[in-house]
Design brief:
- The protein has 13 helices and four strands.
- The protein is mostly helical.
- It has one domain (8-20, 27-275).
- Strands 1-2-3-4 form a four-stranded mixed β-sheet, with helices on both faces.
- Helix 11 runs antiparallel to helix 12 (239-252).
């Protein structure tokens, strides 16, 4: 896929819609569960303030992602191209920023309510410390490895392609508007041919297995972006098929700013499952470990 600076690629393909139509055990908006879990913890004196902050953050995240809930992004884009493109870019960046902030807030709650308490830090730091010390909470975090890996990836994309993009050389502004996927390609270089070929092979296998109505295209960037999108659709309903796809997206290291309804649902699912680690009846906050 040619990606000259400021190029906009309009794709009729729909990599997520078919998989999103598959039977799912989660509600259509997985933020509902995150809200319910945060509300339970907002009723407890020891976690009330931080849980209420979580509720505010989840609300902001929902608002930021509202545009990605519409059934067809191209309808809006074709009607008002410049305004819609700006809204898609702003919305996608805002979703990544709010996701990062919420991940760090949940990490702080997990660390401070654990028994014994863990050193306060970022999400990965809390997980690493739990594993290193064989903390009683480690098995619960280990059971949520997919959620943790997803949030870690989104945080890395945020750091590289949004928050510190100039310093990291992510200076391109290419965009792809598909029916139900939006992607910002900010890395000026393409993935290595070997990785791109592996991504295309994985993608075509998933297209065949799940009868996805999707033309994978010819370019290496397109293959990685579509694999990213399809893996979001599979992450909760077919996690074992999603795992190798997610690993290849990470190996390609393009750090595309991708957003879709499926990606939003996965963010809500991941945050909810981590909020669940915070006890409903935590001990009183004391001095945290150093």
């Amino acid at each position: 896929m040619p990606c000259s600076r400021l190029a906009i690629l309009i794709k009729p393909s729909t990599p997520c819609s078919v998989i999103r139509a598959m039977p799912q055990t989660q509600p259509a908006d997985s933020f509902d569960r995150a809200v319910a879990l945060a509300v339970k913890r907002a009723d407890k004196m020891t976690t009330a303030d931080e849980a209420k902050s979580l509720l505010f953050g989840i609300g902001s995240l929902r608002t930021a992602g509202a545009l990605f809930r519409v059934p067809d992004y191209q309808v809006a884009y074709n009607a008002r191209p410049l305004e819609t493109l700006q809204a898609l870019i702003t919305g996608a960046e805002s979703v990544y920023q709010h996701t990062h902030s919420l991940s760090e807030s949940v990490a702080h709650l997990i660390a401070t309510t654990a028994t014994p308490p863990l050193p306060v830090g970022g999400l990965q730091s809390v997980v690493d410390n739990a594993e290193k010390t064989n903390h009683p909470i480690a098995p619960e975090l280990r059971a949520r490895r997919r959620e943790l890996q997803l949030l870690k990836w989104l945080g890395t994309v945020r750091n590289k392609a949004i928050q510190h993009r100039a310093q990291n050389g992510y200076i391109d502004n290419n965009a792809m508007v598909a029916k139900d996927v939006f992607v910002l390609f900010r890395k000026p270089t393409e993935p290595a041919p070997v990785v791109a070929n592996k991504a295309r092979t994985c993608l075509t296998g998933l297209i065949s297995s799940f009868s996805i109505s999707l033309d994978p295209g010819n370019g290496p960037r397109e293959a990685v972006a579509y694999l990213d999108a399809v893996s979001h659709g599979l992450l909760r309903v077919q996690p074992r098929r999603a795992d190798p796809a997610r690993r290849l997206v990470e190996e390609a290291a393009q750090y595309d700013v991708l957003m879709s309804a499926a990606a939003l649902d996965n963010i809500g699912w991941a945050l909810a499952n981590l909020i669940e680690v915070v006890p409903e009846h935590p001990r009183a906050f004391g001095a945290t470990a150093s």
